[in-house]
Amino acid sequence: MGKTSKVVVCGQASSGKTAVLEQLIYGTHTAGSQLFATIEDIYVANIETDRGVREKIRFYDTAGLSSSNPELPKHYITLADGFVLVYSTTDRESFKRIDLLKRDIDAAREKKEVTVVAVGTKTDLKDRKVELREAQNWAQKEKVRLFEVSVKERKALMDPFVVRSPPSVPPPDMVSPFRSSAAV
Ligand SMILES: Nc1nc2c(ncn2[C@@H]2O[C@H](COP(=O)(O)OP(=O)(O)OP(=O)(O)O)[C@@H](O)[C@H]2O)c(=O)[nH]1
Ligand SMILES: [Mg+2]
């Protein structure tokens, strides 16, 4: 096992950051249930593949951002190997927030290579406010991978956290996109 990748999960308050992590890692979250607003929590996960454990990721679940708390503290940007920018597909404000976050990350990371993934939550709800096409256009412009998810579909929650190679490629065929260059 190589170096643990550090991945900062950030975005608007109530966008679903904690729900996604808890459902991804433990499978215990019920959509719509009340969670306490996060201050900071750390989750350590092994990303398993069908050929065995390959990656260890330390997820930093951060306090939700809002107009009264707009900035991700700088130390997260310094420590991160990667970011998961979470927005809710039912909340336009949260989509604007990930654009601001991406700017902050680009400005502060200097030359460090970091992986950025955008995750749109709550696709099971009827009141969509951010269209997939709009989000995809943004993601293409920013060169980030984009995924829409629902915590009701646990299996698909894995997709943002792995990169799958075509079957013709020899192992490792599935690795974390956040793997830092020091990890083997
Ligand atoms: N229906 C549905 N509800 C979701 C989904 N994702 C999150 N939620 C709900 O949204 C609410 C807020 O989720 P949290 O995970 O607490 O959001 P957060 O971004 O961690 O919030 P802060 O810690 O305050 O920043 C909870 O009631 C979740 O169950 C989803 O995909 N579908
Ligand atoms: Mg939270």
Features:
binds magnesium ion; alpha/beta; 8 strands; binds guanosine-5'-triphosphate; GTPase activating protein binding; 6-stranded mixed beta sheet; 5 helices; 26% helix
Question: What report would you give on this structure?
Answer:
Keywords: GTP-binding, Nucleotide-binding. 26% of the residues lie in helices and 27% in strands. It has helices spanning 17-25, 74-79, 92-108, 132-142, 154-157, and strands at 5-11, 40-49, 52-62, 82-88, 115-121, 145-148, 163-164, 174-175. It binds guanosine-5'-triphosphate (GTP) and magnesium ion.
What's the total count of β strands? 8
Low-confidence regions: none
Number of helical segments with 4 or more residues = 5
Strand content: 25-35%
Helix content: 25-40%
- Distinct ligands: guanosine-5'-triphosphate, magnesium ion
Overall 3D form: globular
Largest sheet: 6 strands, mixed
* Strand arrangement, major sheet: 2-3-1-4-5-6
Straight-line N-to-C gap:
7 Å
Radius of gyration: 16 Å
Give helix and strand order, one letter per element, not per position: EHEEHEHEHEHEE
Mean pLDDT: 89
Secondary structural class: alpha/beta
